[in-house]
Amino acid sequence: MVAPSSTSSLTQQRSILSQQLHSALAAQHLTPHSSNPTYSYASSISSAPGSRPSSPSPMSAGTIINVPTPPQSPTAFQLKTFVSSAPSTPPVSTIVAVGTPNNITPPSSSSSSYFPITPAPTPSISFFSLFTQPTTRIVLALTIIMSLGALGGNFPEHCTAPTHVLFSREYLSLLISPFVVPMTPALLDAAQLSLGFSLILAVSNIFSFAVFEEHLTAIFNGDGSRIFRNLCLIMVAFIMGLRQILGFVFSRSTGWQFPALFFSDTMFECNLGLAPYLFALLAVQSLFPASSEKTTFFWKLRRTPVQIVLCLLNVLPKTIVWWSGTGLLVGFFAAVAIQFQRQRGHWGGKVKTSAFEKQLWEDDAYEAVMQDEENFSDSSMAGEGIPSFKERKSVASGWTRLLYIFPTLLFAMLILVGGNQVHTAKADVPNDVFNKSIEPQAPYLLTLLLMTAPRTRGVTYIKETLTSYLDNFPDEEVDPLYSRIQIVVYTHFTDFPGYDEAKAYFDTIPKARKHVKWVREEGFEKNQRKHLVSAIRRVGTAEDSVYLAVMEDDFPFCENGWQEMLNTIYEANQKVPEHCGVFVGTGGSGLIFKRAVALTASFILERDLHTISLGLTTPPPDVSLQNCLLGEHEFCSSCAGTMVTSKTLLQRHLGYNSSTSGGGYDKNQFQCGWRHPF
């Protein structure tokens, strides 16, 4: 028997035990006993620690060796009882019953464990008691208060979005957005929800949050509620901040530098409710499997399928890919941080090991013992020791545990992106619908005023630009738009060979003869303001058209740009009936005015001419026209807040190096796919 020593450290005890056990194993290997198959090595262990007896004496199987009980430490350790036939355990000693190697049986979760303190089974929790948890109570109270406040007043007036936060500085709306349930007509319309579905989502999200709290607080030992609350606060701050950054990067930044990565919805997607924070908690919860089996199979994860369904209910009525995608991203990094702390035992022991990890480490430790014994017998090497528990723990709880998160992330993102495609896909407006919905009694629905003038080095783009327009015009009279759209090519130069050549060319094309009118006024002065005033007043008074669009001759339509223009005009009439115009291009091209507003804008340009004659400065003519649509000029003050734009530029710039004003641009500037400047 080995006498216990109160001054021995846990490390020394483990070393002594390892030496004793392997000395015994070596003794049997070197001195086999053919006549007694159940020959025991216990007599060898009775000698001094680390020594080997000269000759082992027979001893019956099941002889007991008492090993001192290790002191309590942050990392609990206890040896397993390997033989069921061992005598009863003394109250103060840990027993190793040694029999033949073949009698060693694997540890069972029903017997003693490497972890002496086993958490008691979690009592069943009723549905209503979930809502009494500390953090859930706070969320529920804030939701009721903020939602009733929004219902009784006008705050917030609309959904929070990066465009409101970054440019209108609506920070308070952002802070209360998780707790606002849309119930007013304005918020319901902005959130694309009905009142019934809005209330269903509110209850579902709060219930889902309560389930997350119930699970995750059980994972964190001691002060689990405080840890969960602080975790939520940190993730909320990061989600709100990252959402604004992503909105800016994937609209303002990539919109001009990398058009392929431009997503207009990043700036305008409605952000209300708990959805992104639930997705973040979903990623964190994926770290902790519910099954005690060693498996990484997706459907074995702790309540993850149910929680995914509850989270994805938010996808049914509208797209939330950017808002909730941000939550998933933050949740992933939160899970990485948690795993980092668990791997190194930080957080002051505030994070405990889940039952699954304990079972996994038990099994790994047992397999390691069996493998080492086999290796020892085969190689006759007595110097190899049993791998330490710390080493097995490190292997079992490695970074591979993060692999549990990826199936959840991929599945959730697949649904989010798919939902976004469904909700944002819009069919093109049919010509008959477009024709009937916008003042069908007016002779012309749309008149395109194509401004052209001589350019440097005699370059002309009239043919290419006009062709891109005519290619989209209807060919048959049965089309409702056949007789309601037209083009007026206007120049203010007497000597302009490019104009003459283009006219001669298109006069031979039947579609051009039907839809194109040519207007030339005598002159030679290069004055864009004067030309615009003359053109707008002449065409605007002569043609009874709902819209008068100012176009420049070096801006042809992009692929599908014409149809997108019609879609934008239709949406403007449906959603902003009092709008003054639509802007689908840049500079002085793509400005589509209501005819009366265009005539008003001509007076602004005329006033600028007078201001210049007095030696004062004025904005460029295209900026003056834009300011009228924006309602920033006193003549057009009624237009404030009504301008509608396309998401991207629907026209490309051909004359980047041959501007009539003498300047130039980079070849890749203001091209198809660029985000609209407004």
From TrEMBL:
<feature type="transmembrane region" description="Helical">
    <location>
        <begin position="320"/>
        <end position="340"/>
    </location>
</feature>
<feature type="transmembrane region" description="Helical">
    <location>
        <begin position="270"/>
        <end position="288"/>
    </location>
</feature>
<feature type="region of interest" description="Disordered">
    <location>
        <begin position="37"/>
        <end position="70"/>
    </location>
</feature>
<keyword id="KW-0812">Transmembrane</keyword>
<keyword id="KW-1133">Transmembrane helix</keyword>
<feature type="transmembrane region" description="Helical">
    <location>
        <begin position="402"/>
        <end position="419"/>
    </location>
</feature>
<feature type="compositionally biased region" description="Low complexity">
    <location>
        <begin position="37"/>
        <end position="61"/>
    </location>
</feature>
<feature type="transmembrane region" description="Helical">
    <location>
        <begin position="227"/>
        <end position="250"/>
    </location>
</feature>
<keyword id="KW-0472">Membrane</keyword>
<protein>
    <submittedName>
        <fullName>Uncharacterized protein</fullName>
    </submittedName>
</protein>
<feature type="transmembrane region" description="Helical">
    <location>
        <begin position="195"/>
        <end position="212"/>
    </location>
</feature>
